[in-house]
């Protein structure tokens, strides 16, 4: 295999490798570091005996991601306030034309699912991502993790049960979610507290992620009254100061806010039965650097 061919092969699989790494780690920079390390290993190692490059590369990325995830666990424990995954733009493109497959990929990268995956062990998370998000055969997963197929099936069952037990049931219809997101923005920006409260479920939750580096709640806010008052106060304080853009992040519509030309925050909603069940707010500047420079609406 020539150097040019090796590069082409790797690049053809980069989207899958990045997708696996991000779902494993929840941070784009970490995922890119893992994929880059996989490229270095791929480009420098003999490849004559590699009959299935995709499986070979996924194995490298998965093992690197597991190692990094284990190293990151102590840092997560010291994280200031709630932790949310770094927002990522999702555009599955023509390579994923099937609606059902798109729905699976979108759900597997959703904020709600990624938060639940944080409670899995690194091995369980790897098995869940490879099996549920990308449909890898158990035999390939077993080879990637250097485990028996029986052990992988057991890990998969345990991980699936854990996720299904803890994963909230939300509406995934894109048009419905976008409509409610736009109504949410209009009510908050327009100072219509009654309309805003009408959009919130009675037990709605607001989860803010600042990492201690900007202003955001250090604890989850619960109930429509408390969440509504908090959002109304924030909208009032920032009236006329923020620009915004509506775009697709983590498989669904999200609001990206700007202040002074820099990305200020990302707000995304989880919706069920026509009401907002959870409001995610990412304000950690380390997780927003990629959005600075995007045009506002």
Helix content: 40-55%
Spatial sequence of strands, sheet with the most strands: 2-1-6-5-4-3
Calculate the mean pLDDT score and round it.
Answer: 88
What is the count of helical runs? 11
Please outline the major beta sheet.
6 strands, mixed
SSE series: HHHHHHHHHHEEHEEEE
Shape descriptor reads: globular
SS class: alpha+beta
**Rg over C-alpha atoms, rounded to the nearest angstrom:** 20 Å
Beta strands, count:
6
Instruction: Give the low-pLDDT segments.
Output: none
The proportion of residues in beta strands is 15-25%
- Gap between N and C termini: 47 Å
Describe this structure as you would to a colleague.
It is a single chain. This protein is an alpha+beta fold and 297 residues long. Helix content is 53%, strand content 15%. It is built from eleven helices and six strands. The chain has helices spanning 3-25, 28-44, 53-77, 99-108, 111-117, 122-133, 138-145, 149-166, 174-189, 193-199, 224-237; strands at 200-209, 221-222, 243-249, 252-259, 262-272, 275-282. Strands 2-1-6-5-4-3 form a six-stranded mixed beta sheet. Helix 1 runs parallel beside helix 3 and helix 6 (122-133) packs across helix 8. It is globular, with a radius of gyration of 20 Å. The model has no long low-confidence stretch (mean pLDDT 88).
